[in-house]
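User: Show me an example of a complex going from sequences to structure tokens.

Assistant: Sure. Here are the input components:
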Amino acid sequence: MSIVSISNLSKTYADGFQALKNVDLEIRRGEILALLGPNGAGKTTLISIICGIVNASSGAVTVDGYDSVKDYRITRELIGLVPQELALGAFEKVWDSLCFSRGLFAKKPDPAYLEKVLKDLALWDKRKAILMELSGGMKRRVLIAKALVHEPRVLFLDEPTAGVDVELRKDMWALVEQLRQAGVTIILTTHYIEEAEAIADRVGVINRGELLLVDDKHALMHKLGKRQLEIELVSPVAALPASLADFSLEISRDGNILTYTYDPHKADTGIDKLMKTIATAGFTIKDMNTVKSSLEDIFVNLIKGNGEDAA
Amino acid sequence: MNIYAIRVIYKYEMKRAFETLGQSFASPVLSTVLYFVVFGSAIGSRIDAVGEVSYGLFIVPGLIMLAILTQSVANASFGIFFPRFTGQIYEVLSAPISFIEIIIGYVGAAATKSLLIAIIILLTASFFVEIHIAHPVWMLAFLLLTCISFSLFGFIIGLWAKDFENLQIIPLLVITPLVFLGGSFYSINMLPPFWQTVSLFNPVVYLISGFRWSFFEAADVSVGLSLFVVVLFLTACLLIVWWMFKTGYRLKQ
């Protein structure tokens, strides 16, 4: 079932910084997994260990059943990596750079395949361009092309849309979907919650080197998502009567909107009772609106909770 | 064995040299010509022959050594330092390639460039003096061993260096003095006894002496000893590189 299996992985850098603490993670074949976390949470370290760029302090990683240290030749051939930094040479041509990447990954030259990759990424016209002269977005595409030229089964995208314009971001999402259709497992790290919400199947949250949770995106929102009912009143209220105290309502500054937070998965959400109590209290309702909490709210709450625990 | 990877790294490095043809090959030729003009003609005409060999001819092996030692270190150190500096190295590190293959690619290319430079200098020198090589096979052996071991040494510096200053400092403060004091332009027998003894601690003396022997059958130290020192140096470099890759020093830490 899982294509990448991470067990008890820890990493302490030479300066004593512990970037990962006993991380366990199963990445399922063919899924899109988004790893969310603030800067310095350990996302890049985790990816780097799986790809062989950083040595782990302890723990193990297997890819398709092969150990990433002992059988590194097999595991690395299966993996493609798009790094966060625009780490490219300066003076070579796009085409040469791709040939270099393919060779590194022990694949014999295949111009037809390279052409396909370049065309998929709208880079074909730029194949003879010098890397240094490309725009940031183009460089990002070249990095993706370089990661794909050896036909990997697992693709790591480390913040693929950081500093990328809206159009390119949408292109990137489409590309990710296209790769998934082709059976490639995709792991992406991101700051952008909407990105995870838009394209991921599962979401993992990392903070301070710990994997706080991994869950199906919908299940996660279901489990942790709260809902709010906003009640707009015809005339503003200054204070609430005692009968409404149990509902812990929030009053907006102008006194027009009452906000009720509830758990939509409970049999009794309390809305019915609230409505009746409001009517009894003599308020007249003008409008109502329910708001679902987004992945972003969930994420912020998790990180906050984790930070406070540690402090 | 990942032959494709070795091939692309080697090709990439060689291409870099041929794209900067002037810098890679014309400058060693020019400096050789300058050395010949200054040492060979201007000063050399006032210096007696060293043993049986005229001074102009005597400095040829030293000049070649001077060039390949500095070029090997410079080429190999830059070759691995630059991708580390730009971050491109991630690709090599994440590729299915062993450290031996990485070394064959990078060090092999640096050593090849040095070998080409040595040949170019030898050809250039043949316009100034008549060159006779007594033991061509040994000459080639010394040349190859020196190119490989000093390229390895440069590779180590490229892995160790944290910035461009680090990259420059060893060649400038260690290699250049050792080469100049290693008998490139003189036989250490010309030195006072005290400095002769000091010179024996300079490994470059053994390299130049052995290499010179392959030309003229005359040497400052015995050929066997020269060969032993070169192989020792090569082994030491290999061990250091092996340790660096094993521990991930400056690469995977």
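The lines above are the inputs; the final block is the predicted structure for all two components together. Residues 25 and 132 of chain B are 24 Å apart (CA to CA).
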